[in-house]
């Protein structure tokens, strides 16, 4: 809506001016400049001497690299413009056109942002036109949503908006999904808080990168605010879903909280189980007979205590890099079995709180929050995408994929060398020999500082076998431990592996895909599985960074539009055409072959046993956003039921 920023959340008579002034004084200069430009309509704020310069580091460039006097002038002008706006003055530039939005973000980021990116900026700032009226027939439709994590919450909100009767089926005793299950020390998000937020419910985050408890509270509060608890069944396990051709409904077999088996029926089925769902347990000889405790990070017991214990952590991916620094000072001895080497970027915002004044500024002036979010979205989403393509003419493919990627390698290498300057013998054991971004880039949560602690030992090998309390590495090195922590992630290529799905003519999805070769049109639709939608399905995650929530919202928007198209056509069923499905996945594979994560010799959790990329998308985020705006009717197959509810007539 174009008037989103016209309303004042707080009357000027109720404003805490001291707190607001504090916020403006600590605010991000590039974001303030965008606010100033829109509030005053004056183009001078986008040009010298006010336009920011590029930051030499990886921080948010809060100063814009401008002289103090210029910064003060900007902050003074912003405070006056905000005061005038709160006093009733309208925005002089309430709705910049999309190309101008891209120009503004280019100034704020001190680099070129493609003109077409303005479309996704407008959508992210809710500047798009109102949604059209929904078909009345939707109110007669029903849906089942399997999973109550972020995808399930997103589905519930959208189905509720559409007027579709729905039920969320969740195996745990509350909403939250992966944030309900992962409770290990140090657990948090590696995406900025402003982008890890539902677009329909902004949040007053306390930290730039919040920890697990704050994220879970936000998800549960969102579910409450939208009334999702009234449509949810917890402690409910889904065992199977079967398409019933004679009624054009899905039959879902569940085990209730009381242990009974029950059959549920619905017109539409949404799978929202995600890919961070089934823990991955490594094969380690003797692990089952370990005399101490074994914890997978996603199954962390509430009564676990690390104090004074000898602890071994297996794995150094995202969860390993979070849990190890969090417990290092509590344990007697910490041993890290880290066979793989990971690129970890500097993390200047680690554990940093958002100043109270800046939080208040975002509350009182939503336009500031919107621009701060757009800057972070570009930084952590698509900024790096163009640098990840493999250059066939590049002279050093053994270490990088192109000249810019080689520059990233040099920068990250310098960072590792600086962090381990006091322990240079560790560098060879942690510095990767593959290109940056070939695996998901991690953020340094204090990992390198932890390696230098006197009670920490790094073994750059895998844990091969366990005998009693003795742990042996692949080379035979032995240590003793009281606790083993498995920071080994999830079975990300076993998409929808937690229950059986049977489509038309008895087609079993796991057999159609094979054990680890999932495919779906836009990560969402599969032929011969009518009225079935996968959220956070294959090739939807973002390998080049960014918020999962945005892609899930894009998928659910698309799914909702498909349901609306079917309702408007009077169709009982809808599915993707087989040729469209196969062509889309051919394009997916073709694009992935051009990118860094298919670099020869690279291993990552994105790829299946044959090397095909399953988990992540090759597309830039704004490209996927465009693909999911409106379904193409010619890509879909609709089914109409005859008057006697017998034969299903397919129409294109």
State the gist of this model.
The chain is of the alpha/beta class. Strand 4 (237-244) and strand 5 form a beta hairpin.
Distance between the termini: 34 Å
Number of helices: 18
Give the overall pLDDT as a whole number. 93
Structural class: alpha/beta
Number of strands: 24
Percent range of helical residues: 25-40%
Strand arrangement, major sheet? 3-2-1-7-19
Rg to the nearest angstrom?
26 Å
- Report the portion of residues in β strands: 15-25%
Describe the fold and architecture.
With 652 residues, the chain is α/β, with parallel strands linked by helices. The protein is 31% helix and 15% strand. The protein has a five-stranded parallel sheet with strand order 3-2-1-7-19, with helices on one face. A hairpin with a 4-residue loop joins strand 15 and strand 16.
Descriptive labels:
single chain; 31% helix; globular; 652 residues; disordered C terminus
Give the secondary structure arrangement, pairings included.
Elements: H1 17-26, H2 29-40, H3 68-86, H4 98-109, H5 118-124, E1 142-146, H6 150-162, E2 165-169, H7 178-181, H8 212-225, E3 232-233, E4 237-244, E5 249-255, E6 261-266, E7 268-271, E8 293-296, E9 310-314, H9 318-327, E10 333-337, E11 344-345, H10 356-364, H11 366-380, H12 403-419, H13 427-430, E12 442-443, H14 447-451, E13 456-459, E14 463-467, E15 470-473, E16 478-480, E17 483-486, E18 500-502, H15 509-513, E19 532-534, E20 541-542, H16 548-568, E21 573-576, H17 578-592, E22 616-617, H18 621-627, E23 636-641, E24 648-651
Parallel strand pairs: 1-2, 1-7, 2-3, 4-18, 7-19, 8-17, 9-10, 9-17, 10-13, 11-12, 20-22
Antiparallel strand pairs: 4-5, 5-6, 14-15, 15-16, 21-23, 23-24
Helix pairs in contact: 1-3, 1-10, 2-3, 2-4, 2-11, 4-5, 6-16, 10-11
